[in-house]
Write a structure and sequence with these properties.
Order of helices and strands: EHEEEHEHEEEEEEE
CATH topology: 2,3-Dihydroxybiphenyl 1,2-Dioxygenase, domain 1
CATH architecture: Roll
Radius of gyration: 16 Å
Distance between the termini: 28 Å
Oligomer: single chain
Organism: Roseateles oligotrophus
Pfam family, one: Glyoxalase_3
Number of helices: 3
Strand content: 35-45%
Protein name: VOC family protein
Number of strands: 12
């Protein structure tokens, strides 16, 4: 079983701030996206696909102020007061990433658990798009906590449709994902160095090369 980088997650205090950040930082505006009824969040997307990272995209996500409380902790640590404060003060930033499971999501969760990494349980999720309902399964902890400060990814297993397939070419592409973990063996198929948890994404954009460090 191996993992592939699926998407980068940009947290924002509001979706409008996230969209403005994307245009100012990457030189383009995001497109698509929608509402997550399960988590009371909403998002916008940007295609990052290229030869090194096919079927890859950037997700800008924020708490949906018009949605009722979800009744559980939101994903990506979005309910963390410390993270909320940083997003309000410092603006949007890279808060997490998601890895796609090529195989059985439950089996990968068991393998992580045996190595001491408790990533939660597989949960079915969906959102509506212009082309219909998008479905996936994602590993969620009950407390919504990001493992290793966000350097260890959430795990996802897509249904028949992948969101990157419907996104237009954005002119932005992911060039490198620089990653360190105390347990790099948790990421079969992905290159990670051993050391203190750390993550940085480097993107080629209309504004030049942009580095996005992890906001912990």
């Amino acid at each position: 079983m191996s993992l592939r980088l699926d998407h980068l997650v940009i947290g924002a205090a509001s979706l409008a701030e996230g969209e403005a950040w994307c245009e100012a930082t990457l030189g383009v505006r995001p497109s698509g996206g929608g509402k997550h009824l399960l988590m009371s969040t909403h998002n916008r997307l940007l295609n990052l696909s290229g030869p090194s990272f096919p079927r890859c995209y950037l997700e800008i996500i924020a708490i949906d102020p018009d949605a009722p409380p979800p009744g559980r902790a939101r994903w990506f640590d979005l309910d963390s007061p410390a993270l909320q404060q940083r997003l309000r003060v410092e603006g949007p930033g890279l808060i997490h990433w998601v890895a796609r499971v090529d195989g059985d999501l439950e089996a990968q969760l068991i393998a992580w658990r045996e190595q001491g990494a408790e990533a939660g349980e597989a949960v079915a999720a969906s959102r509506m798009t212009a082309a219909g309902e998008l479905r996936w399964r994602i590993a969620l902890r009950a407390d919504g906590q990001r493992l290793f400060g966000g350097a260890l990814p959430l795990l996802i297993e897509w249904g028949e449709v992948h969101p990157a397939d419907g996104l237009p070419n954005s002119g932005v592409s992911l060039q490198q994902l620089l990653l360190r973990l105390p347990q790099p063996g948790l990421l079969p198929g992905l290159a990670a160095d051993a050391g203190e948890a750390w993550l940085e994404a480097r993107l080629q954009t209309p504004l030049g090369l942009v580095s996005l460090p992890l906001m912990t």
